Amino acid sequence: MLVIVAPGQGAQTPGFLTPWLELPGVADRLSGWSDAAGLDLARYGTKADADEIRDTAVAQPLLVAAGLLAARELFPDELAARRVVGAVAGHSVGEITAAAAAGVFDAHTALRLVAARGRAMAKAAAITETGMSAVLGGDPDAVVAHLAGLGLTPANINGAGQVVAAGTTEQLAALTENKPEKARVIPLKVAGAFHTEHMAPAVAELEALVPGLTIGDPGTRYVSNTDGQVVGSGAEIVRRLVAQVSNPVRWDLCMETFQQLGVTALVEVLPGGTLTGLAKRALPGVKTLAVKTPDDLEAARAIIAEHGTHE
Predict the structure, then answer these.
(1) Closest CA to 222 of 211, 207, 233
(2) 268 forms bridges with which residues in the sheet?
(3) What pLDDT is attached to residue 131?
(4) Rounded Cα gap, residues 150 and 298, in angstroms
(5) pLDDT score for 310
(6) Among 201, 207, 254, 292, whose CB has the most other CB atoms within 10 angstroms?
(7) 2-125+197-307 has which fold?
(8) What is the mean pLDDT of the chain?
(9) What is the pLDDT of residues 13-62, one digit of tens each?
(10) Is 92 a residue of the active site?
(11) CA separation (Å) from 98 to 95, 153, 185?
């Protein structure tokens, strides 16, 4: 059973879209999506430096566009793809990529929604100086309890020994000085405490957009970050997408669901790497591939042909 996953913020790197623009039709597609997002996605994906694409309002639309570009190259026939793919999921903003891939809304709607999400989250992040740090290793329950003692939120519980802490810069500094037992702490280059109460103002902004969206039910299984459950209602998926902005990401539970569904292969769309790394540790025996450049497409197609479920 094949699972397609989409990465979240922080996966982008300067120039990562450059080789993709050489593929037929990609530049035109990206131009249309740029209009929907109100950003020059081609420039940000080819010429912008690390600081420019770290900006939440830029990073989020760029990641969704990149993931959808790769998905379109792998699955030119979207309806046929939903019969081949056993499940889709995305980490944080990657959930919008996954929802579009599953047919909950079209790509232009995805880019309009994610652009609004990025702007709203950037605005919320500017209210208080906040950030995030990865905590690697240690007992997961003990790590979560340790974070609570410092007033931090376990914003991403990723499985495979990784928890991401979020909170104020003072709280994160205290974590660096007072680490959980047998754990390492690595500050992340993000612009705020995402998936925490600090993002509540962004939730309110996004809720106001939902009535104007055209929404359909997913054409394949959609696994939600909220609790790792398969959600079959498009309206419920969008409700969860909005609420997730200020709630923790439970990627550990998503991977447990993949396992329960019988996953045999997992392909991570552009810019892949983070989620396949987690899967290699948490899902032994599952074939994984991260799509990073067009050179990875042939291998990804071979995995799809071998592991996709044709109905």
Answers:
(1) 233
(2) 5, 290
(3) 94
(4) 47
(5) 54
(6) 254
(7) Malonyl-Coenzyme A Acyl Carrier Protein; domain 2 (3.40.366)
(8) 96
(9) 999 999 999 999 999 999 999 999 999 999 999 999 999 999 999 999 99
(10) yes
(11) 5, 25, 29
Catalytic pick among 195, 224, 246, 307 = 195
Instruction: Please say if 195 is a catalytic residue.
Output: yes
Active-site pick, 92, 133, 224, 246: 92
**pLDDT interval class at 79 (50, 70, 90):** confident
Considering the segment(s) 130-187 as one domain, its CATH architecture is 2-Layer Sandwich (3.30)
How far is 191 from 129, CA to CA, in rounded Å? 9
Confidence of residue 291 (pLDDT cuts 50, 70, 90): very high
- What strand order describes the sheet that includes 162-168? 153-159, 162-168, 130-137, 183-187
How large is the C-alpha radius of gyration of the chain? Answer: 18
Q: And the tokens for 183? A: 């754990």
Question: Contact at 8 Å (CB) between 15 and 36?
Answer: no
Q: Do the beta carbons of residue 142 and residue 179 sit within 8 Å? A: no
- Partners of 290 in the β-ladder: 268
Residue 187 β-bridge partners:
133
* Helical segments of 127-247, H only: 140-149, 169-177, 200-209, 234-244
Do 147 and 171 form a contact (C-beta atoms < 8 A)? no
Q: Which is nearest to 238 in space by CA: 217, 259, 265?
A: 217
pLDDT by residue (tens digit) across 193-235? 999 999 999 999 999 999 999 999 999 999 999 999 999 999 9
Query: For the chain, what are the domain ranges?
Result: 2-125+197-307, 130-187
Q: What confidence score (pLDDT) does residue 80 get?
A: 85
Assess contact for 67 and 97: CB atoms under 8 A: yes
